[in-house]
């Protein structure tokens, strides 16, 4: 078979690193990078570190409104799909790249396989929720990472084309988490200075529109982690670097270390050795869960309810007092609880495309 895979953002590169190697053992893959994440540390570096096959096409599309980005991707992806004539289009997750890939393939009557189908926040103010819903309802094959996602697909009348395969992010964590020891990780500050990872620290990632659309929301989050007794390591997303630089000039965050984004292996090392995690990233919520680290998610909706068991992950408003209070909650680890599969999802994804499940 010829499979055309669409990726564009950090979590999709991680999943492709796992699935593409399995897929290419017996099939042809055409890999398209939309360009949605363009910064070296959030794009090209992932391909290098994870030995992902070099994209056959890089569309170089980033920035602009959701409509502008998705529209440009739709036009460019349609052109490549017409040229390549794939048997399947493979999409991951919930980004604008996911939606554009699904729409282009559906209008060309090409079968679509959506990995990470069924994840729901039930918040229509969340842009990714709209992408998930649209992609699932026009996809041919829906592959869920968790059984709660299967339940969501059943409620929406999609269960007949759905299968549980597990989470390729968990496959990747098991395969790559030993690759980079924490004592080899160097942090690059926003001014280019090289910094050491503290012995004890909180790992913070905040990038979603809900938390970064104005100064006050992000400022409140930073004030919260700055009050903790530990240093906080915060790799700043390129999209909000200007805002962060402005806040740093006008406020004192003595306990926050602001850095450039990490590569994937660096990020795994940092999360594995952190005391606790504060994030608004769906991917880092799961990685903190895999690493058995207490996580506070600064959002008002749940994407991965499996991580919430026994206070391992708790939701928080973007308020300093609430973030601190939630970080103080103790988690309980159940070693037999494996809601994201057994680490062999890539094999099941390929078998699903082959019609073997």
Beta-sheet strand percentage?
15-25%
Total helix count?
A: 14
Largest sheet composition: 7 strands, parallel
The strands making up the biggest β-sheet line up spatially as 3-2-1-4-5-6-7
Q: How does the overall form come out from the CA principal axes?
A: globular
- Average predicted local confidence, pLDDT: 94
* Number of DSSP-assigned strands: 15
What Rg do the Cα atoms give? 20 Å
Order of helices and strands: EHEHEHEHEHEHEHEEEHHEHEHEHEEHH
Q: What are the segments in which pLDDT stays under 50 over at least 5 consecutive residues?
A: none
Write out key terms for the chains shown.
seven-stranded parallel beta sheet, alpha/beta, 40% helix, single chain, 14 helices, 357 residues
Write a structural description.
This protein is an alpha/beta fold and 357 residues long. It has helices at 10-23, 44-49, 66-84, 96-107, 127-138, 147-155, 168-176, 209-212, 215-226, 241-250, 264-273, 282-290, 320-327, 345-353; strands at residues 2-7, 28-33, 57-58, 88-92, 112-115, 141-144, 162-164, 186-188, 194-196, 201-205, 231-235, 256-259, 276-279, 294-297, 313-315. The strands form 3 sheets. A 7-stranded parallel β-sheet has the order 3-2-1-4-5-6-7, with helices on both faces. Helix 12 (282-290) links the parallel strand 13 and strand 14. Helix 3 (66-84) crosses helix 4. The protein is globular, with a radius of gyration of 20 Å. The protein starts with a strand and ends with a helix. The model has no long low-confidence stretch (mean pLDDT 94).
């Amino acid at each position: 078979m010829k499979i055309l895979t669409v990726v564009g953002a950090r979590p999709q590169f991680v999943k492709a690193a796992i699935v593409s190697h399995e897929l290419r053992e017996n099939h042809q893959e055409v890999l398209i990078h939309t360009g949605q994440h363009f910064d070296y540390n959030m794009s090209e570096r992932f391909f290098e570190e994870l030995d992902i096959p070099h994209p056959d096409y890089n569309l170089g599309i980033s920035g602009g409104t959701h409509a502008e980005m998705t529209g440009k991707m739709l036009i460019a992806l349609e052109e490549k799909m017409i040229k390549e004539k794939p048997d399947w289009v493979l999409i991951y997750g919930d980004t604008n790249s996911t939606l554009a890939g699904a729409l282009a393939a559906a209008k060309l009557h090409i079968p679509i396989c959506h990995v990470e189908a069924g994840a729901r926040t039930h918040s229509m103010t969340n842009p990714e929720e709209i992408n998930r819903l649209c992609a699932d309802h026009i996809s041919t094959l829906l592959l869920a990472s968790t059984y709660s996602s299967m339940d969501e697909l059943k409620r929406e009348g999609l269960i007949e084309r759905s299968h549980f395969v597990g989470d390729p992010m968990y496959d990747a964590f098991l395969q790559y988490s030993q690759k980079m020891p924490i004592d080899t990780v160097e942090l690059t500050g926003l001014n280019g200075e090289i910094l050491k990872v503290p012995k004890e620290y909180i790992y913070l990632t905040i990038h979603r529109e809900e938390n970064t659309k104005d100064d006050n929301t992000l400022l409140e989050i930073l004030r919260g982690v700055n009050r903790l007794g530990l240093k906080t390591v915060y790799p700043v997303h390129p999209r909000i670097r200007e805002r962060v630089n402005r806040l740093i000039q006008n406020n004192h965050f003595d306990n926050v270390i602001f850095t450039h984004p990490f590569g994937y292996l660096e990020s795994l090392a940092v999360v594995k050795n952190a005391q606790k995690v504060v994030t608004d990233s769906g991917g880092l919520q799961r990685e903190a869960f895999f690493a058995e680290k207490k996580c506070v998610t600064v959002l008002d909706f749940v994407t991965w309810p499996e991580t919430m068991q026994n206070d391992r992950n708790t939701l928080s408003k973007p308020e300093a007092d609430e973030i601190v209070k939630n970080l103080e909650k103790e988690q309980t680890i159940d070693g037999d609880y494996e809601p994201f599969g057994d680490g062999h999802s890539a094999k099941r994804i390929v078998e699903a495309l082959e019609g073997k499940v």
